[in-house]
């Protein structure tokens, strides 16, 4: 009898060309599907809530896949962790409704971007090191502009092929924790490169390269060519996926 399995995954994206399977590069999806094959003897295609880009990390990626093998959920979790590389971990596994789809039933994806304003050795693969005075009040005034439904074409990759570039942003704000700045954004969907380009452009403004009005003009232009450079992938983490 076919069963639908839901996993919550954590992974370090440093060694991977993103989540999605690629012909000539190593992906997180490929490693997970290889582990499922070793555990169950079944070749499956897993569905993910979000397709993280190359170098991006995840603390709460959600995936689902269907198998015939009758394994208890805790043995699926333990078995997959035994076959996965150390930079990918299954945090939980459960049998869910046959109708559950990790991508299409997700209501919100939550990302956080991490910046260190001091040199760090231990966190160097998990943050962008920016050695400038960054005013969180300025950053939050920019972040607030993104709330609600807008066209995010200015902050997505030029080559993105999509029916539309409208996203609804539920949360968008910065917090400071000592020498760390964290940008949190939650939306119904994200375009490729969107969060990193938002962060890169905001930091340009916080450093005085752009005014708040120029940031708004860039946002409303829907033109990626006028936005700032994308922030490094290593600072971005998919924190959680929210379902009804």
Fraction of helical residues: 10-25%
- The assigned CATH architecture of the largest domain is 2-Layer Sandwich
Q: What distance separates the N and C termini?
A: 27 Å
The CATH H-level homologous superfamily of the largest domain: Pseudouridine synthase I, catalytic domain, C-terminal subdomain
* Basic shape: elongated
Structural classification:
alpha+beta
Task: Explain what you see.
- There is one protein chain.
- With 244 residues, the chain is an alpha+beta fold.
- It folds into two domains: 3-96, Pseudouridine synthase I, catalytic domain, N-terminal subdomain (Alpha-Beta Plaits), CATH 3.30.70; 108-242, 2-Layer Sandwich (Alpha-Beta Plaits), CATH 3.30.70.660.
- It is built from five helices and ten strands; from the N terminus they run βαββαβββαβββααβ.
- The chain has helices spanning 28-40, 73-83, 136-144, 194-206, 212-221, and strands at residues 3-11, 47-48, 57-67, 88-96, 108-116, 128-129, 148-151, 166-177, 180-187, 236-242.
- Strands 1, 2, 3, 4, 5, 6, 7, 8, 9 and 10 form a ten-stranded mixed sheet that branches.
- The longest helix is centred in the N-terminal third of the chain and has 13 residues, at 28-40.
Topology of helices and strands:
Elements: E1 3-11, H1 28-40, E2 47-48, E3 57-67, H2 73-83, E4 88-96, E5 108-116, E6 128-129, H3 136-144, E7 148-151, E8 166-177, E9 180-187, H4 194-206, H5 212-221, E10 236-242
What descriptors fit this protein?
244 residues; alpha+beta; 5 helices; Alpha-Beta Plaits; 10 strands; elongated; ten-stranded mixed sheet
């Amino acid at each position: 009898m076919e069963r639908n399995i839901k996993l919550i995954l954590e992974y370090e994206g440093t060694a991977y060309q993103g989540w999605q399977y690629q012909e000539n590069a190593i992906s997180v999806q490929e490693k997970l599907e290889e582990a499922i094959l070793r555990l169950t003897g079944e070749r499956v295609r897993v569905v993910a809530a979000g397709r993280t880009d190359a170098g991006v990390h995840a603390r709460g990626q959600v995936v689902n896949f269907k198998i015939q093998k009758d394994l208890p959920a805790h043995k699926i979790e333990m078995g997959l962790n035994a076959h996965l590389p150390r930079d990918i971990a299954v945090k939980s596994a459960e049998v869910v409704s046959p109708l559950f789809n990790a991508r299409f039933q997700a209501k919100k994806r939550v990302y956080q971007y991490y910046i260190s304003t001091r040199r760090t050795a231990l966190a160097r693969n998990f943050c962008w090191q920016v050695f400038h005075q960054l005013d969180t009040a300025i950053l939050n005034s920019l972040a607030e502009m993104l709330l609600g439904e807008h066209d995010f074409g200015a902050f997505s990759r030029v080559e993105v092929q999509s029916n539309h570039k409208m996203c609804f942003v539920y949360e968008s704000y910065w917090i400071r924790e000592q020498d760390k700045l964290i940008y949190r954004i939650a939306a119904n969907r994200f375009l490729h490169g969107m969060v990193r380009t938002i962060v890169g452009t905001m930091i340009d403004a916080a450093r005085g390269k752009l005014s708040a009005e120029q940031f708004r003009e860039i946002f409303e232009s829907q033109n990626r060519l006028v936005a700032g450079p994308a922030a490094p992938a290593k600072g971005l983490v998919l924190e959680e996926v929210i379902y009804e």
